[in-house]
């Protein structure tokens, strides 16, 4: 019988390119629950997976509360249908929020384009006026 692979906070921090402090923060938020050997945190494969999924959720723009809610659903029964339904709902909400942000960004970029054109026209007009005045 082989012992389950465990990880130290330093190993996980290095693997995921985050600080040990970030891992402790996720722990404080209830996303990770490592065992302890004395004062040392001992992370299981399940903790590693939860950290990986938490970081993925963060990249997607999910809140820590949303990530925790989704992760906690997987700790229960083997029926993953409710978890998948919830995750699809969260992803749909995130997609809608990102689509709105994209639309807002496109509007702002359009306004910036217009202002840049106006500034260039004003500069060109001033340059033309100076040239005409010097020719007199």
From TrEMBL:
Nucleus among keywords: no
Domain HTH merR-type, chain residue ranges per copy: 6-73
Matching PROSITE patterns: HTH_MERR_2
A Pfam family it matches: MerR_1
UniProt xrefs under InterPro entries: DNA-bd_dom_put_sf (IPR009061), MerR-type_HTH_dom (IPR000551), MerR_fam (IPR047057)
Annotated coiled-coil segments of the chain: 98-132
Keyword terms, alphabetized: Coiled coil, DNA-binding
GO MF annotation list: DNA binding; DNA-binding transcription factor activity
Entry keyword annotation includes DNA-binding: yes
Gene3D superfamilies: 1.10.1660.10
Superkingdom field: Bacteria
Protein's UniProt name: MerR family DNA-binding transcriptional regulator
Source organism of the structure: Denitromonas halophila
Classification lineage: Bacteria, Pseudomonadati, Pseudomonadota, Betaproteobacteria, Rhodocyclales
């Amino acid at each position: 019988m082989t012992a389950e692979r465990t990880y130290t906070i330093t190993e996980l921090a290095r693997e995921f390119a985050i600080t040990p402090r970030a891992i402790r923060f996720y722990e404080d938020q209830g996303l990770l629950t490592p065992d302890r050997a004395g004062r040392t945190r001992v992370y299981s494969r399940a903790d590693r997976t939860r950290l990986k999924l938490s970081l993925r959720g963060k990249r997607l723009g999910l809140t820590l509360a949303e990530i925790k809610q989704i992760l906690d659903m997987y700790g229960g029964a083997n029926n993953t249908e409710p978890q998948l339904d919830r995750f699809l709902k969260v992803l749909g909400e995130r997609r809608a929020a990102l689509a709105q942000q994209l639309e807002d960004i496109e509007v702002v970029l359009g306004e910036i384009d217009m202002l840049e054109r106006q500034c260039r026209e004003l500069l060109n007009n001033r340059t033309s006026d100076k040239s005409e005045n010097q020719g007199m």
